[in-house]
Amino acid sequence: MSDWQRLERELDAWRDDGRQATLWCRDDDACRDSPALRRLLRIAGAMEVPVALAAIPAALKMSLVEAVAASAIATIVQHGYAHRNHAPPGARNWELGAHRPPDVSIAELAVGMDILERGFGERFAAVLVPPWNRIDPVVVARLPEARFHGLSAFGPRTQLHAAPGVVQCNTHVDLIAWSRDRAFIGVDAAIDRLVGHLEARRGGGADPREATGILTHHLDLTGAAWEFLTEVMARTRAHGAATWLDVREVARGDAAAPAISGRSA
Hints:
CATH topology: TIM Barrel
Number of helices: 8
Oligomer: single chain
Number of domains: 1
Helix content: 25-40%
């Protein structure tokens, strides 16, 4: 069985159950317009697939505001504040770790939210994407006071709410192998992870309400990664049991459609 046939068979199983396999796309490290960003928005726009652009407030350029305004499928979420590492040498990179007082992190996030709200208005959704997908639990607990209603990191969530009123809405398929010089992980590995999460949701091994998230970094995608992204969007959009959600829908927490309905692919 080919890689793509495995995906088709999994979507067939969702269809046979009368259910929608919900998906979403998060793209990290947005700061400005670029050929890569335009390519992402062009591909997603042609497929009518919503994209959540995780923007770095401290690095925001007006060209990103203009690019989002010109796109019908882009929504902005908040990628930390400056995407700056505050961990000591030799430790994993953290911006929102325990290396600084949580008051400092929360204050920076508040400044960042103000920047994005002023720049994007209604195109901004108050979902936090921690740089490097890492955030200290003490900072998580204080996200409600910073007015966030969503938190998106990586891996299947273990609970619906990360903090009161803050829905955990993660991604599950990172197209980049960061330890291999940012190469594409490959079609087989990408479909393994995609089908694996969908199958776990369908069978009860993962929260069935958490939409399966594909994570991209437009500035780092190679030709093979772009080809995969285009193909997976096209194939899922052509299948009656797959639905791509906007980040606002994902951040409501219940992405499990009980029947084949809504925005079908």
